[in-house]
Amino acid sequence: MRGRLKTLLAFILTICCYGLVSPTTFAAVESLPRAEQVPGGLAIVRLDSTRHHRAPPLVHFENERVMVVAHEKEWVAIVGLPLYLEPGEHDLRVQWSPENLKFHTIEVKNKEYETQRLIIKDRHKVEPTEQDLVRIRKESRKINVALRKWTEKIKVPTEFIKPAEGPLSSVFGLRRFFNDQPRKPHSGLDIAAAEGTPIRAPAEGTVIATGDFFFNGNSVILDHGQGLISMYSHMSRIDVKEGDNVETGQMIGAVGKTGRVTGAHLHWTVSLNNARIDPSLFFPDVNVLTSSPGDRQPVPTEAEVASAKTAEPVVNNGAIERSAQPAEGPVSEPEDETLPAMEEPDTPNEEMLP
Length: 354
What we know:
The protein folds into 2 domains: 2-108, Immunoglobulin-like, CATH 2.60.40.1590; 115-320, Glucose Permease (Domain IIA). Helix content is 14%, strand content 33%. It has helices at residues 2-17, 130-147, 286-290, 302-310; strands at residues 42-49, 58-61, 64-65, 67-71, 74-80, 88-97, 100-108, 115-118, 168-170, 175-178, 181-182, 189-192, 198-200, 205-213, 217-225, 228-238, 245-246, 251-255, 265-272, 275-277, 315-316, 319-320. Strands 9, 12, 13, 14, 15, 16, 17, 18, 19 and 20 form a 10-stranded antiparallel beta sheet that branches. The relative contact order is 0.16.
């Protein structure tokens, strides 16, 4: 009896040490996002039957923890592929137990993204001062911590609703130039909308960060579980606070033009295992995302519309919202979740200034 107890305790300790979860707490999903094995895309990797392994494995890609769900009696890894990833074969590390380590190969294909050039009149938004850089570095650290957050969660979303009404004004992956200076690729989607348009959570989650950032303006970051994070930038106001749990379709704020912008819009970032990926992959019918208005978008109530029109400027951490000077060119000039680096970052996963 004592020997059996020791064996059981050893098994439980092994599970805890390797981050595995019990069969009663794993995430099971009815559908999967769309796979597109390109930089900025997604890989869907089927690992093994749930009959052979009652608990999911610990999976890593590019040294980042990866989402694993149960789908149709199989363990499936949903892997975010960073925009910097080179085409070719890449290893996915799968740890079933301390003695059972396997590798799966992900074949990443090349994708040529379009180029966008924008002219910004407010030059210090393109060429920040030394004082600005101090602030930007501090904000970058806060954003990067949030984007790398891992939360074990029984229920994880694999489908999104459109977070705001309006047409897409900038697509994911654009190679961008501000005043002819190269910047990092556009790692989100832009939805053009009037100031005050409601912004809603595309799926249930927890608010893990808010702030008024130099480039992104008023922003909210949501944690959806297992490394799936979303960020909403340039908001006119924020209606939630850190620690709040939000439901799908719940209003979290309103569209604005704070930070580095040339007009009101929502910049929407989705990150999975710390890789910025195309949000459209979480839409089974991409026409719902590209159409305006979106068929699945909740209709704002009269109270919400009135609140959006009459709201006072948000004060966040003692700083009132600010807007960039109008710029020539496109109405929408959203930005990456942090500043596109003036020099290459120290590591590919870091979104920080030198």
